Amino acid sequence: MNRYQAALLGLGLLFMLLLYVGLPGPPEQTSWLCRDPNVTVLAGLTRGSPPIFYREVLPLHQPHRVEVVLLHGKAFNSHTWEQLGTLQLLSRRGYRAVALDLPGFGNSAPSKEASTEAGRAKLLQQALQDLEAKNVVLVSPSLSGRYALPFLVRGHHQLRGFVPIAPTSTQNYTQKQFLAVKTPTLIVYGELDHVLAQESLQQLRHLPNHSVVKLHNAGHACYLHQPQDFHLVLLAFLDHLP
Ligand SMILES: *[C@@H]1O[C@H](CO)[C@@H](O)[C@H](O)[C@H]1NC(C)=O
Ligand SMILES: *[C@@H]1O[C@H](CO)[C@@H](O)[C@H](O)[C@H]1NC(C)=O
Ligand SMILES: *[C@@H]1O[C@H](CO)[C@@H](O)[C@H](O)[C@H]1NC(C)=O
């Protein structure tokens, strides 16, 4: 290597070092959430078996009677509702809200009980009991229908409201089973979700007390695509529950 080449190599290395030092690190995951210094998001594990990881916010003031329990889709977990600012918003609006990690997602270990329909209903029931969640409004997107639907058909009398967002598993139940559920229901789906939204809507329409909101310019995970619209319709529904 001659001096010229060595100098070039040295310059190249220096340049790389500068680039490395000078570049900002990977963006912090939480940087896009609406930070709210007044809301504390608590985290914990339920006492049950299996333990379920959850994130919880308490009402900042003027507590409402209903409590919101948020499930999640396949690519998500309880953190999604914190990143989206849903937990913080609900707290500010006077709601206790709890987001769960379903077994095998986020910080919850997989569970054998989750392999049967009855097991999943029982698991959710146990988690609500451990959390002392009463007057629950259950928010259930996509894959979480595996838990929410069996729980709904068995335990709807325990729910004050139900917010399905293109959930799975609706095909597993009959019109008669849906007709028996008097729980006030807000069906939310994204305009661009052409598969699961329509399939679930066909079934959920049999719930006697439901309203439907289609979020424009939103796909299957419509709450992620249009969080402001989603938050507005969710709050309107919650605020008007008897
Ligand atoms: C936090 O609470 C303080 C005192 O009540 C208030 O002045 C402030 O505006 C609140 N901040 C947010 C982001 O709500
Ligand atoms: C649907 O019902 C069948 C038969 O009862 C059951 O084996 C299956 O696990 C159910 N699927 C879901 C997703 O609940
Ligand atoms: C239907 O649900 C709404 C809330 O969305 C509630 O105000 C109303 O009382 C319910 N109607 C019946 C007949 O239960």
What does this molecule look like?
The protein has 242 residues and is of the alpha/beta class. The protein has one domain: Rossmann fold, CATH 3.40.50.1820. It is built from 9 helices and 8 strands. It has helices at 3-22, 78-83, 86-92, 117-130, 145-155, 175-179, 196-204, 222-225, 227-239, and strands at residues 42-45, 53-57, 67-70, 96-100, 136-141, 159-165, 185-190, 210-215. It has an 8-stranded mixed sheet with strand order 1-2-4-3-5-6-7-8, with helices on both faces. Mean pLDDT is 90; it is low at 17-32. One 2-acetamido-2-deoxy-beta-D-glucopyranose is lined by residues 36, 38. It is found in: Cytoplasm; Membrane.
Helix tally equals: 9
Assign the CATH superfamily.
Alpha/Beta hydrolase fold, catalytic domain
Would you report the number of β strands?
8
How much of the residues is beta strand, in percent? 15-25%
Overall CATH class: Alpha Beta
Q: Cα distance, first to last residue?
A: 82 Å
* List of distinct ligands in this structure: 2-acetamido-2-deoxy-beta-D-glucopyranose
Biggest sheet features: 8 strands, mixed
Structural category is: alpha/beta
Radius of gyration: 22 Å
Mean pLDDT: 90
CATH structural fold name: Rossmann fold
Strand order of the largest sheet: 1-2-4-3-5-6-7-8
The CATH level-2 architecture is identified as: 3-Layer(aba) Sandwich
Q: Any idea how many domains?
A: 1
Large-scale geometry: globular
The low-pLDDT segments are: 17-32
Helix content: 25-40%
List SSEs in N-to-C order: HEEEHHEHEHEHEHEHH
Protein name: Esterase OVCA2
Subcellular location: Cytoplasm; Membrane
GO molecular function, one term: carboxylesterase activity
Main location: cytoplasm
